[in-house]
Amino acid sequence: MENLSNGNQQPTNSFETIAIRAQAERSQYGEHSVPVYLTSSFVFDDAEDMRASFAEEKEKNLYSRYSNPNTNEFIDKVAKMEGAESGYAFATGMAAVYSTFAALLNSGDHILSCQSVFGATHALFTKYFPKWNIETTYFKAEDAGNVENLIKPNTKVLYLETPTNPAIEVLDLEFFGKIAKKHHLIFIVDNCFATPYLQQPIKFGADLVVHSATKLIDGQGRVLGGVTAGRADLIKEIYAFSRLTGPSLAPFNAWVLSKSLETLAVRVEKHCENALKVAEFLENHPNVEFVKYPFLKSHPNYEIARKQMKLGGNIVTFEVKGGIQGGRNFLDKIKMCSLSANLGDTRTIVTHPASTTHSKLSDEERKEVGISAGLVRCSVGLENVQDIIADLKQALDI
Q1: Taking the complete model, does pTM exceed 0.90, yes or no?
Q2: Nearest-angstrom CA–CA distance, 82 and 228
Q3: Interval 21-51: pLDDT, tens
Q4: Cβ(320)–Cβ(327) under 8 Å?
Q5: DSSP H or E stretch at residue 329
Q6: What is the crossing angle of helices 69-82 and 251-261, to 10°?
Q7: What stretch of H or E contains 270?
Q8: Which of 87, 92, 205, 299 has the maximum number of C-beta atoms within 10 A of its C-beta?
């Protein structure tokens, strides 16, 4: 893997340059843009080459369920962006979440997690992990100061999303990093909403960072993907588990995602610029109860967000007056913005979590993770911001 496309250039730590210039080694054809390696397997020079490769005495692609030049390039870019030692790529973001936990946890272990987590992650913690005697304890963001009291002798993992989905809570990575180190916990952060451009949790003490690459990393709603990056010793365990269980990222999707990373910085900058303007508009609309966006001064953790994030991200949540029916009425009146469960797209997307993405949670569970009846999640896109605001306004106006 080349750090830069021209071997006589000096290495760089610049985010944008890494995103563009870190790429797979050129083939004998001298291509400028890395091709798609659509192959299930690879060949060996002789019996000894094959033996040594399978014994992991040399680094070599064996089979695309294990590794592939396209997935290797994507992993290498994300790891460099996050300041991580290593990484592994997955077919989806949830494959990354599940495989990371499954590889590292044993029966009898305990997870300590922030309460506001993605609905599918919540289902893993509450429905499936208990079948294997893995227990989860939740803490609320506002109760972070008491989190040490929840650590048990069998606690192995401290897990957070920040900003959280969909409540847009911001948790202090430095604070939790120190707690994890003090108690020898594996500190895992879902960094999907921020991307490595806005936030690098490893700098604050995280051991592993997880992404749904389907979101802002792809950025155009095209392909599914996931990635975990972090400590090499932990990634080695995740790789061994995933090599056997097969949640690997397809080479074509890896190629798309690696290309997408080349424009991540410029895309996210514009997303954030638009999102802040949308949040400011919503904060002054009479039919909106409240707005949450990390870089609004009204956000309860505004100072923490400014400390650990470069910008506020592209997700704005707000409460429409009228509860569930108010939220549904708002969606029915939307004209330009998309109604979809995805986020991080070039196109602005609005979602009503209580009736869609988190509808399988009970009323009490939704309340516990910060999802109120009229809550709307807006993934602000790259359209002209005045057009986005105009559509939201006409849908909110009575």
Answers
A1: yes
A2: 10
A3: 999 999 889 999 999 999 999 999 999 999 9
A4: yes
A5: helix 323-333
A6: 40
A7: helix 264-283
A8: 87
